[in-house]
Design brief:
The complex is a heterodimer of chains A (533) and B (292). Helix content of chain A is 35%, strand content 10%. Chain A has 533 residues and is an alpha/beta fold. In chain A, strand 7 and strand 8 (338-339) form a beta hairpin. In chain A, helix 5 (200-208) packs parallel to helix 6 (223-229). The longest helix of chain A has 24 residues, at 441-464. Chain B is an alpha/beta fold and 292 residues long. Chain B has 9 helices and 12 strands. The chains are: A alpha/beta (533), B alpha/beta (292). Chains A and B meet through helix 8, helix 9 and helix 15 of A and helix 3, helix 4 and helix 5 of B. Chain A: Residues 39-58 are annotated as: Disordered. Chain A: It catalyses: N(6)-[(R)-lipoyl]-L-lysyl-[protein] + 3-methyl-2-oxobutanoate + H(+) = N(6)-[(R)-S(8)-2-methylpropanoyldihydrolipoyl]-L-lysyl-[protein] + CO2.
């Protein structure tokens, strides 16, 4: 064992390695040095190495022996201090701060925010102690102290025309749609469904703050936003049945994967958070498109999706590159069965906004008016600043994740009941409307009866319609440019189906029955050259 | 022009001819391989810009630009690093048109992703890969690999104007390998058609990218068979029809590529062409590939 008082000394050993080169027969001698400590009498020097192929690097400048003049501190105005005496921010102009910060003023050492030197370790775990949640109405529909009602001009106009704010109309419609389609899945009439129960205020309130030219990127539980934007019940039902009137996805997608370019509603796809970098790209396009100044993107995602890499990619790109985009998080407490305590340990999703330099707000997602106000302001900030804004709406998923899920496996039924009774977004908004004398019990009954009739009529109609032509299955796999043909591989596969149908379509019972569900019963793919429809 | 200059020229042409075209990726303002160098001075930082270091973000951002009618030309700095973007490319870009009933991307929208691929001799595991085989199953996503400066410019411009998302894999060892008289005009070369580099009657050698040059330079033994050399150019959708017709004339075919044997272009090609031209073949279709 070495003595503790032993000075570290440099031990340099040279190994002479000799070997005979196979090709030339010459002896090659290589040296390898092992240095086990700093060389005793050599001062370090900077290498001034340049290569002919690259620009010479600047010569290193000797480290400055900087000490700030005391007068700089004496003249500084009194600074606001936190409880433990640390300054909250360093006042003064940028040049002054830079001078006082000394070498830290190098742009490579700074973030986008000013920092200051500190002699004590400044560990932190939050940018604010707790992030408050903005609300306008309490659980019973009363105005919260200090809160301002959003400008209800749109609502009042609706009220004068139809004696009803449109938001409430959609909010009361969606549970009926959900209920009918949920039950129809249970009866085997559609293959899949996802309810939005409990999140009506978050989706309708945010959609109501958007304007017709805006682009909307959904995750999958935003049917209320889509209906509020003008998607018809018939279109919605047709998508869920994948029938011939399903213009958006032509019967190719599972139920709830809506698509409506007319309403700026981008196609829902199943992978989570993939819509987010896309929304960042669309926002950037809007920012630079002279014809679309004033338009905005809204991108919905959930608390689970915020764990995906795409979430971080999107917020990072949007914050750096800009583009008007509202990042609207529906924090509904669950990602399928995973509760938020298993999803993140920080202060929700809102705490991540400042990390990306985004204006951020947390809002009571069950309060329609708070969501409306917050998203209107978010939209104003996004459009005027051509930048992203993060809104975290705190809500609760009352329904199961989807028809493939039974939530009683992982949460108490009483808990769900409590949410739907104590903090029901529809009841809350209705209580507010009633308190304003804009709504009454008989009107409610009439409206619900009308909704039910419309939903059942639309459901019955969509269920009876046939599926699109069978050949639609092969269209749009490849886009076809001007003067080009569809790639041969896909046409060959189409012809293969045609041949099989000719051979078995009438004699094999499963196919004979299945064919009848399609427009033209598969005749369209049975042409010989594999072309048609 | 050499190959990187031809790419630079094509990008400049694309940006000049479409005000809604954007070139972006990691370090594109500088241009690590010089393919994008100087474009920012010519077209400005709004249209030629660096992005944060996120491949999935770059791919998704491009899809979003294309969705609303812009022409997105993205760069992934190395093909080896394209895998974080795999989800966006395979699940989103490739399927977008089909999923939306043909509505998205909106008219004018297109996505092109460029990435340097292949070995140079000192790249190790993560600067040498040929990832094209992974994308064969993603119908809706075109994949092309050019062999020379003239080809690169024409195919890249065709890719940028193609309504489908296109992956352009550029063999990076060829960037400075050779110079050609590349037209400075705006021109395109057809995607989906193989190119006959040399005529021959006894054997077809199908290759693309770097090994095509090796095949071209090899001196066959004496007596020399007459070898037809074909540049595949388009990896997906693979032009099976043209190759089947060609092999019917020679009865023999060898596929040569740099990527490994499994799950790649060679076996896909050999299987499909072998099935279609079985009765014409004099020998099994050969495959010369990289080792795995």
């Amino acid at each position: 064992m070495p003595s503790p008082c032993l000075r570290p000394t440099a031990v340099t050993t040279k190994y002479a390695l000799s070997r005979r080169s196979a090709g030339t027969g010459a002896i090659i001698i290589a040296y390898r040095s092992l240095i086990t400590g700093p060389p005793p009498n050599i001062t370090p020097t900077h290498h001034t190495h340049t290569t002919p192929t690259s620009t010479p690097l600047p010569q290193p400048v000797p480290l400055p022996t900087f000490s700030p003049p005391l007068s700089a501190f004496a003249q500084a105005p009194p600074q606001p201090h936190t409880q433990d005496g640390k300054p909250l921010y360093v006042p003064g102009g940028q040049a002054e701060r830079a001078a006082r910060a000394g070498r830290m003023s190098s742009p490579l050492r700074r973030g986008s925010h000013e920092s200051w030197w500190s002699g004590s370790m400044g560990w932190f775990n939050a940018v604010a102690k707790t992030i408050p949640t903005y609300r306008v109405l309490d659980e019973e529909g009363h105005l919260v102290k200090g809160a301002e009602l959003p400008e209800l001009c749109y609502a009042e106009r609706w009220y004068s025309c139809f004696r009803l704010p449109s938001r409430y109309r959609t909010m009361t419609l969606i549970p009926i749609v959900d209920n009918v389609l949920y039950q129809s899945q249970r009866q085997g009439r559609i293959s899949f469904y996802m309810q939005c129960a409990g999140e009506e205020a978050a989706t309708v309130g945010s959609s109501a703050a958007m304007l017709p030219g805006d682009e909307m990127f959904g995750q999958y539980r935003e049917q209320a936003a889509l209906l509020h934007r003008g998607f018809t019940l018939d279109a919605l039902m047709s998508q869920c049945f994948g029938n011939v009137e399903d213009k958006g996805t032509k019967g190719r997608m599972m139920p709830v994967h809506y698509s409506s370019p007319e309403l700026g509603f981008h196609t829902i796809t199943s992978p989570l958070a993939t819509q987010m970098p896309q929304a960042a790209g669309a926002a950037y396009a809007l920012k630079l498109d002279e014809d679309r100044q004033g338009d905005c993107v809204i991108c919905y995602f959930g608390d689970g999706a915020a764990s995906e890499g795409d979430f971080h990619a999107a917020l990072g790109m949007n914050s750096v590159l800009g583009g008007p985009c509202i990042w609207f998080c529906r924090n509904n407490g669950f990602a399928i069965s995973t509760p938020i305590i298993d999803q993140y340990a920080g202060d929700g999703i809102a705490s991540r906004g400042p990390a990306y330099g985004l204006d951020t707000i947390r809002v009571d997602g069950n309060d329609t008016l708070a969501v409306l106000s917050a998203v209107r302001e978010a939209r104003r900030r996004a459009v005027s600043g051509k930048k992203g804004v993060l809104v975290e709406a705190m809500t609760y998923r009352v329904g199961h994740h989807s028809t493939s899920d039974d939530s009683s496996m992982y949460r108490r039924v009483e808990e769900v009941k409590e949410w739907s009774v104590v903090d029901n977004p529809i009841h809350r908004f209705r209580a507010f409307l009633v308190s304003k004398k804009w709504w009454s019990e008989p009107e409610e009954k009439t409206l619900l009866a009308k909704h039910k009739a419309e939903v059942m009529r639309s459901f019955g109609r969509a269920e009876k319609l046939p599926k699109p032509k069978l050949g639609e299955m092969f269209n749009d796999v490849w886009g076809v440019g001007k003067g080009e043909e569809v790639p041969a591989v896909i046409m060959e596969q189409r012809a293969e189906l045609g041949r099989l149908l000719k051979k078995y379509g009438d004699v094999w019972e499963p196919w004979r029955r299945e064919r009848k569900r399609f427009v033209e019963e598969g005749e369209d793919v049975m042409d010989c050259d594999g072309r048609g429809s | 022009m050499n190959l990187y200059q031809a790419i630079r020229d094509a990008l400049g042409t694309a940006l000049a001819s479409n005000p809604k075209a954007f070139v972006f990726g990691e370090d594109v303002q500088t241009g690590v391989f010089r393919c994008t160098t100087g474009l920012v001075d010519e077209f400005g930082k709004k249209r030629v810009f660096n992005t944060p270091l996120t491949e999935q973000g770059i791919a998704g951002f491009g899809i979003g630009l294309a969705s609303v009618g812009a022409s997105a030309i993205a760069e992934i700095q190395f093909g080896d690093y394209i895998f974080p973007a795999f989800d966006q490319l395979v699940n989103e870009a490739a399927k977008q048109r089909y999923a939306s009933g043909g509505a998205y991307p909106l008219p004018g929208g297109s996505l092109t992703i460029r990435a340097p691929v292949g070995s140079v001799g000192h790249g190790g595991l993560y600067h040498s890969q040929s990832p094209e085989g992974f994308f064969l199953g993603a119908a809706g996503l075109k994949v092309i690999i050019p062999r020379s400066p003239i080809q690169a410019k024409g195919l890249l411009l065709a890719a940028i104007r193609d309504p489908n998302p296109v992956l352009v894999f550029e063999p990076k060892i060829l960037y400075r390998a050779a110079v050609e008289e590349v037209p400075t005009d705006d021109y395109t070369l057809p995607i989906g058609q193989p190119d006959v580099v040399r005529e021959g009657a006894d054997l077809i050698v199908v290759s693309y990218g770097t090994p095509l040059h090796i095949c071209h330079a090899l001196k066959p033994p004496n007596p020399a068979p007459s070898i037809q050399l074909i540049d595949l150019r388009t990896i997906s959708p693979m032009p099976f029809g043209a190759l089947t017709e060609a092999v019917k004339k020679t009865g023999r075919m060898v596929v040569v590529h740099e990527a490994g044997k499994s799950g790649g272009v060679g076996n896909d090609l050999a299987g499909e062409v072998g099935r279609r031209a079985f009765e014409y073949l004099e020998a099994p279709i050969g495959l010369v590939s990289g080792w795995e």
